[in-house]
């Protein structure tokens, strides 16, 4: 992928004004103004944007504005999938490296080199699991999307991913990305470029669970998602669906209060009246946000677990991270950005546990169906 090919017409003043006033942060707009020797100590962001949109900007500045617009409101999520093969000649890392070296993917894609991670790196990131070897790489690609702002119609996206070789015929891919669609790009490359019928790909898909099993999944995940160093402190958010054709709904504070109390009391969420009624009525859960506290380090985190996209695939993100100062309520917590290594470590562990739980639920269902046929 050649970045120089990512060309566009110089944006109109309207496009610049809208981008700087609504699609970037005030802090970015102020930094941009300062780079031109302009200061706005008290001005509204809309006023800053109006002034800056009248200036002429070079290519490098326009790229900064574009990137700020794309990244101002995003969070890093972790998604993953399993690649299996019965072809003894197929090796996923070698296959991807061949695609990269032969430049097979076309001008919109640039696959980074595969770097074998050291055992120490793998352990620190909790990516080792039962893997024999772990590789790390990245994918850059151009996402084209029509819209009212031509200036933002082509977005250069980039994400990192790891490949864990679990045995000669199975690999786990974990994707650290900013949008759900990012993870689908590397999956699509593997699916479309691999020799026909040579691989199978497994994901944590919402459609593989019954409504009752989605409730069981999110209930048990609260207990097993984190290591024993953490305790569940709260359930902050729940999305449920009344039926396949119904819109998703957010649980009310009253409904959440009963759910969080049940979890804090150490009881099964499915004993809660609302959850019981949900099971009885065929409701399904699609997302839940958990809050955990570290037992010894004074760290509090909020983790969002949800099924997204079509088909709905499981992904997680850390939505908040605090350091607790002293003993007390939220007023004694300082909001921080988690260290990069720590964030990946927590999300990788949580996804691994979610996958184990998902497999347990789906395998139990398969065994039950097999017994019923006897």
Describe, in plain words, how this protein is organized in 3D.
The chain is α+β, with helices and mostly antiparallel strands and about 375 residues long. It has 3 domains: about 5-70; about 75-200, TATA-Binding Protein, CATH 3.30.310; about 210-374, no CATH class. It is about 35% helix and about 30% strand. The chain has 11 helices and 13 strands. The chain has helices at about 15-20, 25-35, 45-50, 60-70, 90-100, 120-125, 180-195, 210-225, 255-265, 275-280, 340-374, and strands spanning about 75-85, 110, 115, 135-145, 155-165, 170-175, 200, 230-240, 250, 285-295, 300-310, 315-325, 335. Strands 1, 2, 3, 4, 5, 6, 7, 8, 9, 10, 11, 12 and 13 form a 13-stranded antiparallel β-sheet that branches. β10 (about 285-295) and β11 form a beta hairpin. α1 packs antiparallel against α3, α2 (about 25-35) packs parallel to α3 and α8 (about 210-225) packs across α11. The longest helix is centred in the last third of the chain and has 34 residues, at about 340-374. The protein is globular. Residues about 120-130 have low confidence and may be disordered.
Which labels suit this protein?
TATA-Binding Protein, 3 domains, 13-stranded antiparallel beta sheet, 11 helices, alpha+beta, 374 residues
């Amino acid at each position: 992928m050649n970045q120089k090919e990512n060309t566009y017409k110089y944006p109109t003043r309207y496009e610049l004004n809208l981008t700087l006033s609504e699609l970037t942060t005030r802090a970015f707009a102020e930094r941009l103004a300062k780079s031109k020797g302009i200061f706005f100590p008290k001005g509204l962001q809309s006023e800053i944007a109006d002034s800056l949109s009248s200036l002429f900007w070079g290519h490098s500045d326009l790229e900064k504005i574009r990137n700020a617009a794309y990244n101002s409101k995003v969070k890093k999520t972790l998604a993953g999938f399993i690649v299996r093969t019965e072809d003894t000649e197929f090796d996923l890392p070698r296959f991807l490296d061949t695609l990269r070296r032969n430049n097979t993917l076309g001008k919109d894609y640039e696959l980074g080199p595969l770097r074998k991670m050291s055992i120490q790196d793998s352990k620190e990131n909790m990516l080792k699991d039962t893997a024999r070897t772990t590789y790390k790489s990245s994918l850059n690609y151009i996402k084209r999307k029509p819209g009212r702002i031509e200036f933002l119609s082509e977005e250069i996206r980039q994400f990192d991913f790891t490949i864990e070789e679990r045995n000669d015929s199975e690999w786990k891919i974990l994707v650290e990305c900013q949008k759900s669609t990012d993870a689908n790009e590397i999956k699509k490359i593997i699916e479309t470029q691999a020799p026909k019928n040579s691989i199978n790909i497994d994901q944590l898909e919402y459609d593989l669970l019954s409504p009752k099993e989605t409730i069981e999944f999110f209930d048990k995940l609260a207990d097993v998602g984190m290591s024993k160093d953490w305790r569940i402190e709260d359930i902050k958010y729940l999305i449920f669906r009344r039926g396949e054709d119904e819109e998703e709904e957010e649980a009310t504070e009253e409904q959440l209060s009963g759910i969080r109390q049940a979890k804090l009391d150490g009881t099964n969420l499915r004993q809660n009246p609302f959850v019981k009624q949900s099971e009885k009525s065929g409701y399904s859960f699609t997302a839940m946000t958990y809050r955990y506290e570290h037992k010894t380090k004074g760290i509090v985190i909020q983790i969002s677990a949800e099924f997204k996209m079509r088909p709905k695939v499981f992904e997680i993100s850390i939505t908040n991270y605090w350091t607790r100062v002293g003993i007390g309520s939220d007023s004694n917590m300082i909001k921080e950005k988690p260290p990069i290594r720590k964030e990946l470590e927590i999300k990788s562990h949580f996804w691994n546990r979610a996958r184990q739980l998902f497999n347990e639920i789906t395998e139990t269902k398969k065994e039950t169906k097999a017994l019923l046929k006897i």
